[in-house]
Amino acid sequence: MVLKHKSHRTKIPVYAVTAPSKKPLTSMLEEETLEGYRVLLEERRIEKVVKQLDSSNKDVVLVARLLEDEDYGVRLSAASALKTACEKGIIITPAIGHLGKALSNRSENVRINAFLALKTALKRRLDMDAAVPGIAIALSDQGKEFRMNLLELVKSMADWRVDIGAAVPALSDALSDSDIKVLRLALSCLRIAAMTGTDISPAIPALSKLLNHPNKDIQESTISALDSAAKEGRDMREALPALFERLLDGEEKKRKDSARIVENASNIPNKEIRLAIISAMIGFTDTAAFRCEAERNSKLYLEVMGCLQRSIGKIEKQWKTKRETK
Q1: What superfamily does domain 36-119 belong to in CATH?
Q2: Per the CB 3.0–4.6 Å rule, which of 35, 95, 121, 199 could disulfide with 64?
Q3: CA distance 235 to 277
């Protein structure tokens, strides 16, 4: 059948005037491929899926999308297939973010397989950044045993300089956990993250509460985390009250550690924050508690005043340099 154009009487094929397909061809093919994988996963033909992923790595993200399928069997098979694929050396980087989300899946076996897939991906040094938001959510809403496994994973990620910044608020919450093992792991994550340059500012208030923890190891790890954060130029103002309290401690090491952190904190590039910290230091030296302790312990007075003088001296030097360059 043909249509005749009114003006030129030219024969035009019907397909030339019919409405175009709403979906692009590539999208239609992708949906067909996705459905093909869904059928294979529904039938638990995991090895077949892995074999196809090996020959077509771009399909990894299609299998990853099936981690959110309504069917439990499909979700479990998808997680298992991605884990197996990674173990066989297939690059599953496009699925990392989806696997992170799957850590909060309503099905325990899906969560476990997603975790094992991410653990294998980290061992193979794949880019893990996309998993961090999902891990952060899972840290807040999963059971103790699974959270412990996640904290171990985050710790390993921090060791390999993955930016775990998105998980810092969840790690901060874990610092108040009643289980000492959870507390230790969360603290280790934050300490390593701070040492490798990750901004742990949201955790500074919670960390400052641990400065006087009865466990010495917890105290030392906390000092290390706060010291690294101060050296990186983070805003330490919320930690000052707890640090000032330690400056009055009879133990010399505690005073020196706290003085070092305060001094590093006062070197922050932000002028407004720097002046606020120094102002707080001056205010502290004017308190009755400090004056009373300083009279009794001259070494304390010298330590604190030396710290204050060095901080003020550095600012004066910076201002002098700026005036000279103008």
Answers
A1: Leucine-rich Repeat Variant (1.25.10.10)
A2: 95
A3: 9
> H/E element holding 11?
strand 11-13
Is the distance from CB of 48 to CB of 41 less than 8 angstroms? Answer: no
Q: Which pair of structure tokens corresponds to residue 213?
A: 């923890």
pLDDT digits (tens, 9 = 90+) for 164-182: 999 999 999 999 998 999 9
pLDDT tens by residue, 131-175:
999 999 999 877 889 999 999 999 999 999 999 999 999 999 999
Report residue 302 CA to chain centroid gap.
Answer: 40
Same fold for the domain at 36-119 and the one at 140-234?
Answer: yes
Please say whether the beta carbons of 125 and 162 come within 8 A. Answer: no
pTM: 0.83
Residue type, 46: I
pLDDT single digits (tens) 270-295? 989 988 988 888 888 888 887 777 77
Q: In this structure, are residues 65 and 36 in contact, taking their beta carbons and an 8 Å threshold?
A: no
Instruction: Indicate the domain borders of the chain.
Output: 36-119, 140-234, 238-317
Contact 14, 36 (CB under 8 A): no
